Structures are given as structure tokens and as C-alpha cells.
Amino acid sequence: MALSIAIIVVLGIVAHQLFSRLRLPGFLGVLFLGMLIGPYGVDWIDDSILSVSGDLRSIALIIILLRAGLGLHRQTLKMVGLPAIRLGFIPVLLEGFAILLFASWLLGISRIEAGMLGFIIAAVSPAVIVPKMLHYIDIGRGTDKGIPTMILAGASLDDVVAITIFSAFAGWFAGSEINIVAGVLLIPLSVILGVLVGLVTAIILLFLFKKFSIRNTKKIMLIIAGGILLTSLESLVKQFLPIASLLGVMVVGFIIYEKRPALGKTLSVKFSKIWVFAEIMLFFLVGAEVNVLLAADVGLAGVAIIAVGLLARSAGVLLSLQNTNFTLREKGFCIMAYSPKATVQAAIGSVPLALGAPAGEIILALAVVSIVITAPLGSIAMNLMGNRFLKGKGIEE
């Protein structure tokens, strides 16, 4: 395993630098590296590291979400609160159900299988979106209107909605008596519980920091451990209570910054440094999950399904941004920023196949296609449009 980590780090840094010099997002180089030397490529990586890939990706995601929470400010959240909530619900619902209807007709699969497919693909990727939005917050682009913060908050809700409805369809397929409407109604409860457990975790951490003399490095370790415990809690109680644990992780960072701004700024810098390593591990392992040969099998039908979903999502973003003061260009940026897929698709794309769904292989292939198409294009578009369409420095700086 040690040798594999060394290979990932060395080649990951080279790939990241190469793509950055080409004026492309550096993480794309790492993603493609994972596809190239992972198990579906030349297979240079030891199976031991791939066996813990899920845990490593989860930890990396926790790190960037904690950093995101430390970058959220109450004043900006108040300014973008309602549009952010709409962004968390409307685009994912429109995309998921559009794919359900179109895929069931085009591929001839059952509505339940098409529903699983729709809400696997509908989830946006926080691992792709969050670092870019934090970058724009740091340099002050779009912060006068709170655009990066709005997208951060909306994306966290988006995943909660997608995963909850996917779980309902998966349970329905497996024979559980799960009502889709009831599943949707559980989403607000999941969000509320996520916020509450994040709040409690933050309060406990702040108490420990005040009660004991703890170096900032150890504070970082405790905060990451708290994030891991949060996600573990979700796994333990998911049969009884739905908890949006990743949202809770962001809340931890937000509360720490609100209560102790000086500490929050210091920790934010340290998390940014940790992210240098975590980013390489996360995107390499996501890339290693992508079976390009499987993706090639779905052909034009798969591309059409992805395109229909993105069109529905784009309409949902525009609908969510009604009655805001955003320009047409800023709305266009929001559409592209809200399109990348990666982490959720890599994590749950194979679940229908494991459940024995007849269309399981097709669903997995389409999940892979959604990553291959949207992660590069969405990231490149965010870079180009963000630098051209987002202006000025604002209150988030």
C-alpha cells in the first residue's frame, strides 16, 4: 500500500501541474490518472488501497466540506438563503424525473430502475464544486452577490435530495414497502437532523478547545475525527433516522467560524494545506472507479440521456434564480457550476447491479458516462465563465 500511495502522490502532483499549465483544472489530470493506472487501466495500484477507497474518499470529502463550512458567513447566507434552498431542490428533482421518464422510454427499462438511474445521475459533485467555489470566495469573485456561497449551500442540499430519493427507489426495487412521497417528506427531517448533529459536534469541539490547551494541529485532527464520527453516525442509524451528515460536517465549520472567527481563519488555512494531499487522493480514487470500456458500451443513447438530464437541470437552475438580481451571464455561470458529477456516481452507481436489477450494468455504465462527460466540461466551464462573468470583491472576502 505504501508504494501505491507514493505512486499516486508523485504522479498525481505531475498530472495536476501539467493540467494547470494547460489552463485546465488540475484535479482533472489526477482524475484521468486514476482512470489510466487504476484497475480498469494498466492496473499499477495495489488492491489493498482500492479496498479502502471508499473510506479514503469519505475522509477527503470531509476535509473539503469542513473547509467549505469555515468559508460560509452568516451575512452572506442570509442574502442568498431562499435561492440556495430552491437550488437544493428544484434542479435535482427536475433532472432526476426527466431522466426517469426519458430513460424508461428510450431504453425500455422499468420505471423503478429508471428512477434509480435518474437520481444517481442527478446528484452534483461537492468534490468538484466546493474547491472552485472556495477559490472564488478567496479571490472575491461573485461575492458581492454571494454566488459562490449560494452554490455551496445548494449543492449540499442537492445531494441530500438525490440520495434520499434514490434510496427510496432502491428500497422499492428490493421489495421494501417504501413510499416515494414519504421518502421525499423525510428530506426536511434529514436536513434538520444534519444541522442539529453538526451544531452539537461544533459545540462539543469548541468546549474542548476552551477547556484545554490544544495546539491548532491537534484541533484539526479533532475536527476531522468529529466529521468522521458524524458520517459514521449516519450509517449506524440510517434504518431508523435519516441524517444529512455531510451537511452536518459543513455546519461544524460554519459554527466554529461564527463563534471564534480568528480560530476559524487559522484553521481554514491549515485545511487548505491538507487539501493539497486530500485532493490528489480523492480524485485519483474517483478516477480509479471509472470503467471507460463500460462507458463506451452505452453509445449515443447514454449521451442523449445525460443531455436531457442536464437540460432539465439547467431549467431548474433558471427557475430557482427567478426574482434575483443576477445577470444572464451570472445565471449561465450557475448553470455550469451546477453540472459536474463525480463522487456520488462513483459511490452508488453500482448499487442497482448489486441489488440484481436487470438494467444494473446499463445504470452503472451511465453513471460512468455522466462522470466522464460532466466533470471535465463542467470544471472547464466554471474556470472560463467564472473568470469572465463573476465580478468584484464582496462581503465574503
Commentary on this structure:
This protein has one domain: Na+/H+ antiporter like fold, CATH 1.20.1530. The chain has helices spanning 2-21, 26-37, 47-51, 53-70, 74-107, 111-121, 126-139, 147-173, 180-211, 216-237, 245-259, 261-288, 292-296, 299-320, 328-337, 343-348, 351-354, 360-389. The chain contains 18 helices and no strands. By secondary structure, it is mostly helical. The termini are far apart.
What's the mean pLDDT score?
A: 87
Assess the beta-strand content as a share of residues: under 5%
Main structural class:
mainly alpha
Shape: globular
Distance between the termini: 41 Å
List its traits.
single chain, 397 residues, mainly alpha, Na+/H+ antiporter like fold, 18 helices, globular
Layout of helices and strands:
Elements: H1 2-21, H2 26-37, H3 47-51, H4 53-70, H5 74-107, H6 111-121, H7 126-139, H8 147-173, H9 180-211, H10 216-237, H11 245-259, H12 261-288, H13 292-296, H14 299-320, H15 328-337, H16 343-348, H17 351-354, H18 360-389
Summarize the structure.
With 397 residues, the chain is mainly α. Helices cover 79% and strands 0% of the residues.
